[in-house]
Amino acid sequence: MAEILDEAKLRAVRPREWIRSFSRTKPDSRMLECYLKREKHPFASYHTDLQTHCVTRVRFMGIGEGAVRQRSSPAPRTPITTGGYVQTVRTLIELLELPGGWNSYKSSPIRKENVTFAVELLAHLMRVDTPAPNVVPKVRGGVQLEWHTRGVNLEIAIDSPDDVNFFAEDIQGDEDPVEEEFNESSVARWIDRISG
Amino acid sequence: MTFCSDNYPNDPTITDDTDLFRRIPRWHVYYDKNLSRWRPSSAAFEDDSDGDPMSAYLSSVLARERRNPSTVLAGHEGYSLASITAALARRNNQTVHPSPEPDETSHAAICGDKGKNKKSAPKRQFASNATWFVLKPPA
After folding, report:
1. Pairing relation of β-strands B107-111 and B95-98?
2. Which residues contact B63 (CB under 8 A, 6 or more apart)?
3. Beta bridge partners of B98
4. I need a labelling partner for A176 at 20 to 30 A (CA). Which of A83, A169, A196, B6 fits?
5. Nearest Cα to A16, choosing from A47, A53, A59?
6. Are the CB atoms for B41 and A137 separated by under 8 Å?
7. % helix / strand / coil in chain B, to the nearest 5?
8. Are strands A163-170 and A152-160 parallel, antiparallel or unpaired?
9. Alpha-carbon distance A43 to B36, whole Å?
10. Does B25 reach chain A within 8 Å, measured CB to CB?
11. Which residues of B touch A87 (CB under 8 A)?
12. pLDDT tier at A67 (50, 70, 90 boundaries)?
């Protein structure tokens, strides 16, 4: 965690929020902050000089501003205020504690950068009415986010922040399933279909 | 020739109706609202982190040894046990290769591309067609 925080400090030309201020109300940030500070967890707590600001002062590595701009969903995404998001973050953090061989076969521990990326990705993508995804560890240290609801199967596989793919299909529609490199605008459209 | 046919050749004596059992950790079990049932994630049907092919346990060997399939869960508290057929594996371009281990004679290797960047990825076919022998839904 320390290296992520160090990197974030170095890159912080201006304070940028992990959960962006334009999209998150204070109580929501406080809720997450309290959760992350409550437990001595490697995800957020080891860097003492940033500890009290761990949520509001640090932008974790990962998604570029370009990715945010390219999204073209019909309406601005509402801040994520649901317990579903918090629970998802909690589950992602739990994944960091899995030891090697967690699937009873040969599997690697889950890598921090993938969890960090997933947390930030969901902060971008999820709407207030988006159901929480199923959070799934991958054998090579990645994470997978899955929704199977409203006739849609959506999977986002994060093998590394540079290697993210998604699969989406409407099981009732005529459209061909989609499996391609992550594209935020495309995924946001699928998220819209399962939200509400 | 491919890596799999060279190193883990398909064994035609394993019939298509043979079940291939695989342990599923609780992380890979969730409720699918589209299917209205518990299912394993496609992430449960990937090759090992070191590149070795996916492991499974052959029902034919277990039956020959008069063992209940759930014996492959010994020492793995909280795991579920799912199966796919050898036919499904083969239809998805996998080889089914017996690979007995000292502590598990029914062990087999299921070798082949599990399907990154494929719309009909084998791992997804396995996940959606798997049947539960032991299901332990997460709490």
Report:
1. antiparallel
2. none
3. B108
4. A196
5. A59
6. no
7. 25, 30, 45
8. antiparallel
9. 34
10. yes
11. none
12. very low
Whether B88 and B126 have beta carbons less than 8 Å apart is answered as yes
Q: Which of B81, B26, B39, B91 is nearest to B59 (CA)?
A: B81
Instruction: Name the DSSP class of A128.
Output: T
Verdict on whether the full-model pTM lies above 0.95: no
Cβ–Cβ gap B49/A155 under 8 Å: no
Question: Closest Cα of chain A to B49: distance in Å?
Answer: 5
B34, A106: Cβ pair inside 8 Å?
Answer: no
Dihedral (C-alpha) B112, A107, A123, B31: value to the nearest 10 degrees?
Answer: 70
Task: Quick: pLDDT tens for A114-149.
Answer: 999 999 999 989 988 899 999 999 999 999 999 999
Q: What is the pLDDT of residues B68-114, one digit of tens each?
A: 999 999 999 999 999 999 999 999 999 999 999 999 999 999 999 99
The answer to whether the CB of B54 falls within 8 A of the CB of B135 is no
Distance in angstroms (rounded) separating the CA atoms of residues A156 and A35: 25
